[in-house]
Design brief:
Number of domains: 3
CATH class of the largest domain: Mainly Alpha
CATH topology of the largest domain: Lysozyme
CATH architecture of the largest domain: Orthogonal Bundle
Number of helices: 13
Helix content: 40-55%
Distance between the termini: 56 Å
Shape: globular
Strand content: 5-15%
Largest sheet: 5 strands, antiparallel
Oligomer: single chain
Length: about 325
């Protein structure tokens, strides 16, 4: 009998371990890393504009959209689960607490981020949150739960855990000059901060959504491909000035475009200002290589990381395609 009891306990323990492995697959953290890389800049911009901590925005986006893979995120660009209350835009029906609930639908993820900030900022029920310090992400998380943002009683703890696990609190410091001194590229950052920043807070208020790209009335056009923003280099553009205008670090421009540090920009060049994806958007399964075309050009054309493009086609890095070769994109 004792042996049987021991055997039953052992089976239960093994089953519990398997359940734990299923609940925390490695793919989840990989997806979260990609989501954070792609949208952290939007969260920081919204923090500067509205006062909502970037860590809170990212944590809610990750949680509410299941790392960007939920039905609402995919079909409606709704990353925060905001319903149709006082909404005059497009809508989508989706099962939530009850069947066929009405949710807001956006033309872009950018619009979802802006509306999320406005939703909190313009509602009396969340007004008390803006009396908290910007770095007090725990206070914000608990306040959101108390104000009724979500029905899950563990909502605050879930947000706090996401922020801690992914160190999202780092992005709450980006708008404070004294914290910029802690960055690794101190000298570069000092150069970027030398000129006048009087128009810094105007940016997002002057954006117009055209569907395929955003026009900043003060700056240059920002286009989109594969869900990633990019700009076109103008004549006379230089690295430091370009990085300042885009509110980026120089190394981010090189990294997002698979460029070496000694790369020279040229007029008409397309530069991504967000990380490229691991695969092309739906509808682009493969590309037929043309004469003289290289893998780098293909990766830029479809917004795919160059390393991932080589992996998908079982090619060595540095190897170039032959004419008419089929290059897989997904």
């Amino acid at each position: 009998m004792k042996f049987c009891n021991y055997f039953i306990c052992l089976i239960f323990l093994v089953a519990s371990c398997k359940t734990t492995q299923i609940y925390f697959p490695s793919k989840v953290s990989k997806d979260r890393e990609e989501y954070i890389d792609q949208y952290k800049d939007l969260a920081i911009k919204e923090m500067k504009r509205s006062g909502v901590p970037a860590s809170i925005t990212l944590a809610q986006g990750l949680l509410e959209s299941n790392n960007g893979s939920s039905t609402l995120a995919r079909k409606a660009n709704n990353h925060f689960g905001i319903k149709c209350h006082d909404w005059t835009g497009e809508i989508i029906y989706h099962n939530d607490d009850i069947n066929d609930e009405c949710f807001r639908k956006y033309k872009s993820v950018y619009q979802s981020y802006i509306d999320h900030s406005n939703f909190l900022k313009n509602s009396e029920r969340y007004a008390f949150l803006f009396d908290l310090k910007q770095k007090d992400y725990q206070g914000w998380a608990r306040g959101l739960k108390e104000a009724g943002y979500a029905t899950n009683r563990k909502y605050a703890n879930m947000l706090i855990k996401i922020i801690k696990d992914n160190q999202l609190y780092r992005y709450d410091k980006k708008s404070r000059k004294k914290d910029l001194k802690k960055d690794k590229n101190v000298e570069e950052q000092k150069k970027l901060n030398e000129s006048n920043e009087s128009n810094e807070t105007e940016g997002i208020n002057n954006l117009k959504d055209t569907g395929s790209f955003y026009i900043n009335l003060n700056k240059r056009k920002k286009y989109q491909r594969n869900g990633i923003e990019y700009i076109i280099v103008k004549k006379g553009d230089e690295l430091l000035e370009l990085a300042k205008e885009l509110e980026m670090m120089p190394w981010e421009i090189f990294r997002y475009n698979d460029l070496p540090r000694d790369a020279v920009f040229f007029e008409g060049q397309e530069l991504y200002i967000q990380p490229k994806r691991n695969k092309a958007e739906r509808g682009f399964e493969y590309h037929i290589a043309e004469e003289g075309e290289i893998m780098y050009n293909i990766s830029q054309k479809y917004g795919i990381k160059l390393k991932k493009l080589y992996q998908k086609n079982l090619m060595e890095e540095g190897e170039e395609p032959e004419v008419s070769q089929k290059i897989w994109l997904r």
